[in-house]
Amino acid sequence: xxxxxxxxxxxxxxxxxxxxxxxxxxxxxxxxxxxxxxxxxxxxxxxxxxxxxxxxxxxxxxxxxxxxxxxxxxxxxxxxxxxxxxxxxxxxxxxxxxxxxxxxxxxxxxxxxxxxxxxxxxxxxxxxxxxxxxxxxxxxxxxxxxxxxxxxxxxxxxxxxxxxxxxxxxxxxxxxxxxxxxxxxxxxxxxxxxxxxxxxxxxxxxxxxxxxxxxxxxxxxxxxxxxxxxxxxxxxxxxxxxxxxxxxxxxxxxxxxxxxxxxxxxxxxxxxxxxxxxxxxxxxxxxxxxxxxxxxxxxxxxxxxxxxxxxxxxxxxxxxxxxxxxxxxxxxxxxxxxxxxxxxxxxxxxxxxxxxxxxxxxxxxxxxxxxxxxxxxxxxxxxxxxxxxxxxxxx
Amino acid sequence: xxxxxxxxxxxxxxxxxxxxxxxxxxxxxxxxxxxxxxxxxxxxxxxxxxxxxxxxxxxxxxxxxxxxxxxxxxxxxxxxxxxxxxxxxxxxxxxxxxxxxxxxxxxx
Lengths: 395, 108
Known about the structure:
Strand content of chain B: 15-25%
CATH superfamily of the largest domain in chain A: Thiamin diphosphate (ThDP)-binding fold, Pyr/PP domains
CATH class of the largest domain in chain B: Alpha Beta
Distance between the termini of chain B: 40 Å
Oligomer: heterodimer
């Protein structure tokens, strides 16, 4: 029976994991992801899941164990944050390169130094080239729904890639929201039985994996992997659509919020989307044509959809919670710029890095971004491309 | 998928290099061992089998990673030079001093 209960983002992720009942979970607790592992360990202890929970000694081991179990044909889920994801970095590429459909829930937290346990998106944005699908969630309901969708996306025979589901630490992971939880059987039916393409334990069809691949073949392997990631977009859309038809909630690859006639727009991902919606609503009431473009699917990057949504916009700001030191611009900004270039769309585009190390990004700050965009839209000139929201000493 | 992988392996056998879309998923190989590959071309040392010293205990056959020890009717009859990569495990594991020895150079 479907029910609506109060859950945190972490709680919603754990609940989705319980209903998926994966064969293997190998995870190591780290703030702010800890609650997921704690709750899931309780499910294992009370016997409400059949999962083999591997209590590893580090995140490098966690992802290694996940690669092993997935290669052995087991449906595998893990979760981490920040330093944990950084420690997994080596194994992230191996999971993707071996085409292992692992699901990783990443609770976004900044990277040390200085040491800080709070939210920004440096961890997963820093892993953007590992070859994983990356989906960013705005709230806890979306986390719950996306974790369930992620299993189907990863295991789709035309995809066969790991999927990272990202949620902002504390902002989403530790705030209680009313979550509509599906019936256990509905989730089981939706994710279905895992039929692995690669299965080391299938003795009828012996295979060897992790083979040495020398210069004559390596490039072709990597391109095949990159191509699969590029081609996963319609599968992500299809699974989301099917989820919507069955359960009444879908999110799209991107969401263009009040963008139809928008003159100024904020492009962002994660929990900042929700705050930006509120500010856009306020501005609309004052007759200002403001919109929000939410990037839910960051890898593969929705080039066509982003360029199409921004067509006709006079000025737009990309807001993200990560720096890319020494780069022409931070990661998401650079990708949006690249998408516009691909499609020959010109928009006066600026970047706003915000909320590093858990600094709050309130509505009044986002309002100032829109004010900046209004000035650019009126003058047709970009005064400054790279901007830092609420950074002391930055004018 | 298996058909695709087998096709890719057949192509490897012919030494024609497959295009990126012909590559097996995730670098997986479906061959049972490496008998489809001419690992003999790697050899820089070669095992010398001495029929008179050999007790046919089959330890070399069991340890050989490339199934290069040729056996007929339960007895060692020689070395498959297409497969032997010259690793020397057979000589190392052989319980007799002179039955299997390594010689420098890959060519027989």
